[in-house]
Amino acid sequence: MIEVVRLSKRYGDKVAVDDVGFTARPGRVTGFLGPNGAGKSSTLRILLGLDAATSGTASINGKRYRDLDRPLRTVGALLDGAGPVPERRAVDHLAWVARSNGIPPRRVGEVLDVVGLADVARQRVRKYSLGMGQRLGIAVALLGDPEILVLDEPANGLDPEGIRWIRTLLRDHAASGRTVLLSSHLMAEMAGTADDVVVIDHGRVVAQGPVAEVTAGHPSLEAAFFALTGDRPGPGR
């Protein structure tokens, strides 16, 4: 389980996260929504031990990320912008990550099959398309067969078939009794994937609960999101 309690983060005079609290529970996909700059990335970075909180806590199964033993066996993560050395082959990158966390080498081939990269596993990552690179990031997240997945924009760069694949993967992960925390700007996809949503705006949680509860009185999750955040769709959005 993921539990965030009264979490705040300041960067100088700027408040990025302001008294945020929510829980992502086993057996459910929890969507984490908010406009750009709302505090989502700061919250996820604190949760994954990449940044320190000013106050409050963010825990995984009751522990801080840095206190987990072999963390990839507990939580698999994909954050936007993270990736391997471009000159490294995908299979070598995964093998290195596996060794660093005591994960059996057989898992490398297994996750390459799961994400559909087995046939291009020995290509240099620099030759990968955006969608292939995203699949490799998801393979890293799955490598330790973790109880918990924390994914930031996992459908980025995926084609329609790939989006359907990641939706099924996440739903199956939750159906097996595991926990998924998912951040995405794809509202229609989130509505079809998430059980619960947490909406954050200007660093504060403005709504949370089951999707049906948050969208009550609105024609869609997208409409509820715009009403809650004061954001409005514009050209290209």
TrEMBL record:
Transmembrane segments: none annotated. It comes from the Bacteria. PROSITE patterns: ABC_TRANSPORTER_2 (PS50893). Residues 2-227 form the ABC transporter domain. Keywords: ATP-binding, Nucleotide-binding, Transport. The keyword ATP-binding applies. PANTHER family: ABC TRANSPORTER, ATP-BINDING PROTEIN. Belongs to the ABC transporter superfamily. This is ABC transporter domain-containing protein.
